[in-house]
Amino acid sequence: MAEILLVEDDELVRDMLSQVLQRASHKVFSAANGEEATDLLKTHTPDIMLTDIIMPKKSGIALISEVRNKHPQMEIIAISGGGRLDPIGYLDLSESLGASISFTKPIDNTALLMAIDLLLSNKQNAVH
Amino acid sequence: MNRHIKQYWLPILIAIIGICLSVLLAYNALQLIKTAMPSLIIQLEALLPWLSLLFGVTISVLLAVAIIAIQLARERAVTLDQAREYLKNEVAERLQTEESKQKLEKALAQGQKLQAVGTLAGGIAHDFNNLLYAIKGYIEMTREDVQKESIAYKNLGRVLEATDRGEELVSRILAFSRRHHPELKSIELNSTLEAILELLRPSIPTHVTLHFEHSKPCIVLGNQTQIHQVIVNIINNAVDAMNGEGNITVRLKPITANNPLLKQFPHIPIQNYCKIEISDTGSGMDPQTVERIFEPFYTTKEVGKGTGLGLSIVHTIIKDHHGEISVTSQLGHGTTFILLLPEYVRQNEGE
Predict the structure, then answer these.
(1) Could you tell me the pTM of the whole model?
(2) CA separation for the pair A112, A122 (Å, rounded)
């Protein structure tokens, strides 16, 4: 139902999430890091960007702040792995930078899919 | 000469008096004998003045020597006592310093261990959470594809139970490592750095100079023990990079929000910082090493010689203090660490 840009550097998580989203009838474009995501955004306009926060090369935070202004209609969901590399502060920061909601791995995928549906219906209602 | 006269005036005086008395005594004795034995005396009379003088001088000198000897012995006893007292006090003081040093080292070691556990836990947790998530996601999807009544469905359910327990474990480890987040208080870095360096000096090889460039006081909000750990770890690394010879310079400088140095750290909040710079003239590092230097367990030392945790602990502590750390190094020339810690201005002091 929605076009989702998935930005995640862990290959297993990326593949798994991709399948989960496709099973829920969404169209998925994946990127392994912030740079690939920026490239994909040049040619696609996804409804939702689902991005990890801590990634090599360009961090998720930088990606969010960059993308927020260029694609104002796109909803952003931030996800993080917890642990030392990602103190809870980063998730709060991502929300203040423009992510509508954030999740910590391991994520309850049912909740994630519900959040996606909610954001999508909000968008559609806003358009109409 | 004057000192001797002052100290030995008594024996000298006695010697002089002794000589006079002896001469007088001898002369009187002579007169007495003269009247008693005139013939003998006439023979001796020629020699007598000299004999009596000799007699007098000998007795006096013996007396004087005796008195000087006793005086010297007494003085020596006093000096020995004083020396003994002084030694006792010195030893007691040294023992106390050694004791406090050991206490501090123990606290540091304990702190290091806890930091190490925290670093380990934190580092693993991130990757572990990714793995648990992937496992859960795949299992849930697979479960949708099998018959609800099948054994496969049931077993997959048990796998999910296992991953739930894995999740719990990770949270517990993280909670344990976070519990040891020590309290923060205001720390004046000039005096703190001075104290740490004084403590470190004795353990540094003699041909390595450790120099501290003071500046204006700079206050940060932090944990004293952790800041100690940071400095100690970096300096130990610097010492290891030298072959027993070289310079280590520690500089403290407050920097303001508009300092161009801050541009090196794109995500750093714009405010005033206390900058600590630690430079060494050691062997330096190649770019590949510099990139990995803060990784847990990364070490260039041989097995058994280093845990590889020292600098990753430093990194964690600086980050926990909401600061930044950077390192520049050139192979063959040395290394410089730059630490930025937010300057702490108490709210009620205003701008």
Answers:
(1) 0.50
(2) 15
Pairing outcome for strands B324-330 and A3-7: unpaired
Residues of A in contact with B132 (CB under 8 A): 105-106
Which option is the CATH number for B185-350: 3.30.530.20, 1.10.150.110, 3.90.320.10, 3.30.565.10? Answer: 3.30.565.10
- The DSSP symbol for B331 reads T
Minimum Cα–Cα distance from A84: chain B residue? B122
Does the CB of B130 have a partner CB in chain A at under 8 Å?
A: yes
Residue of A nearest to B175 (CA): A83
Check if the beta carbon of residue A105 is closer than 8 Å to that of residue B167.
no
Cα separation, B293 vs B285, whole angstroms: 9
- The answer to whether B174 contacts A82, with C-beta atoms less than 8 Å apart, is yes
Query: Does the beta carbon of B118 lie under 8 angstroms from any beta carbon of chain A?
Result: yes
Residues B284 and B329: beta-carbon distance below 8 Å: yes
Q: What does the pLDDT average to over B93-118?
A: 75
Interface membership of A66 toward B (CB under 8 Å)? no
* B9-36 vs B38-144: helix crossing angle, rounded to 10: 160
Considering only CB atoms, which chain A residues are within 8 Å of B267? Answer: 61-62
* CB within 8 Å: A109 and B137: yes
B136/A contact by beta carbon, under 8 A? yes
SS3 string, B58-98, reads: HHHHHHHHHHHHHHHHHHHHHHHHHHHHHHHHHHHHHHHHH
- Helix residue ranges, H only, B9-37: 9-36
User: Which H helix or E strand runs over B53?
Assistant: helix B38-144
Fill in the amino acid letter for A115. Answer: A
Beta carbons within 8 Å of A74's beta carbon, 6+ residues apart: A45, A46, A47, A48, A49, A67
A17: which chain B residues are within 8 Å (Cβ-Cβ)? 137
> In this predicted complex, what is the ipTM?
0.88
Note the pLDDT tens digit of each residue in B152-183. Answer: 999 999 999 999 999 888 887 777 666 555 56
Q: Residue A13: list chain B partners with CB under 8 A.
A: 130, 133-134, 137
Q: Give tens-digit pLDDT for B25-65.
A: 877 877 777 777 777 667 767 777 777 778 778 888 888 88
Residue B266 CA: distances (Å) to CA of A54, A62, A64, B178: 15, 10, 15, 27
